[in-house]
Amino acid sequence: MSQPVAQHSAPAASGRTGRRGHGNPWLTLVAVALGVIMVTLDTTVVAIANPAISRDLGASLSDLQWVTNGYLLALAVSLITAGKLGDRLGHKPVFLIGVVGFALASAGIGLSRDIGLMIALRVIQGVFGAMLQPTALGLLRAAFPAERLNLAIGVWSACIAASTAAGPIAGGLLVQHINWESVFFINVPVGVVALVVGALFLLNARGGDRGSSFDIPGILLLSGMLFTLVWAVIKAPSYGWADVKTLAFLGAAVVLLAVFVVRESMAREPLLPLGLFRSVPLSVGAVLMMLMAFGMFGGMFFLTFYLQSVHLLSPVQTGVRLLPMMLAMMVASPAAGGLISKVGPRLPLVAGMVFAAVAFLGLTRIGVEAGFWDMTPWFALLGIGLSPVLVAATDIIVGNAPVALAGVAGGLQQVAMQVGGALGTSVLGAVMTAKVANVLPGHMKDAGLPVPTPAQVDLMKGAISQGVAPVPANTRPEVTRLLVRASNLSFIDGMHLAFTVSVGIMFAAALLSLLVRAGRQVEGAAALI
């Protein structure tokens, strides 16, 4: 085992010029928040632009799926490697390269007139986006003292919530009044501001030795494992969870993970030191981040269909309906950061998971005709519940890692969120579809319609699981009304079951939260290898 390295209070930082504001914690927060806002905005506005992209570029449904999945795959695969790059070369230059690359890729997407080029640029955008998120957390840890890191993460989380809330509304307005290209061009001015603020005020914090290797075999194995895992989760709803292709990708992910673990245990300078996971709080924090994302992204997935397809709201109106949840997160995240600094993460985590469980339980009571005030209290409670989880789980992961591995820990936090979100939409989607297939014949019979055969149910369940009633052309209005009613009731039953599963996940996470403790300033990485 390597000898422990000398203790120090912060990561190495270069470029201390004494310039006014250089290294200021709050200016650091402004810079990294702007960078991450670009990534968050881009994730939410693209879904709004998809119909216009399809019309303008002649894109198929498969093309549009790749516009989203290519970005998500590149992002997930690159996160830990990008975090390692920041630890070794410095978080500031990697962050600024990410800002420039993301903004240029966004501009290229807006200028592209070919769907293939657009998909390629989305993949490039995902790679540069991966440089922003883990390095942002590394920069925050370097700039803020330990007792104020929770507050910084809380404000950072509030910025993410704000951009998430603004995404559907801003995207809808831009697409409606300008064009779909504008939802990508908007990243350019945001990127310019982030670049200027970052170049002027960020310190070049880094942890590792500049002469250290980058563990190329480890990078390839981890990238392959994450690709096969995320690909399997993304494609499982269309392949089927029991399909040989899904099982093959999941099996490949397991094999690559096993080889990666063996490689990292033998490597002198591993990409992801396995000793990190000796910290029970850090390991639990990663699991909690996955469970939080499972519920949040899975819930948002169905609520969007519910509002747009069942209630027939526009994207902008849908964004307005979801504002209570996002506004609650904007207010609760900084407050949660301050509370966690005073009482530790355990109580806020448990309370947050319980609040989220109660919110999902309340959402199982909303029906087809639910109004704004039937939904708003549960949306707000969900935002209040998720906020301390996002802040505390992030602090547990980053705070319990050595300072020298802050970037890797930031990458781990983001990977946990990406994988959890993908699992939430896919697993709950499978639950939804199975429930729809089970209840649809009964609802059609109750409506006085012919009971569909199993083959007909298989053809109908996919559309109904997205809130769309599969009404054949030239159907009589009275039959259309009954079919829409039966389809909506089937969707509601499926959504209620998915939310019930989320209730169980949140309560299980509340119990798991009892194992955590506050992040501690661990300085050396060598003892973990």
From TrEMBL:
The keyword Iron does not apply. The chain crosses the membrane at residues 26-49, 64-82, 94-111, 117-140, 152-178, 184-204, 216-234, 246-262, 282-307, 319-340, 347-366, 378-403, 415-434, 497-516. CDD domains: MFS_MMR_MDR_like (cd17321). It is found in: Cell membrane. This is MFS transporter. The keyword Transmembrane helix applies. It comes from Actinoallomurus oryzae. It holds the Pfam family MFS_1.
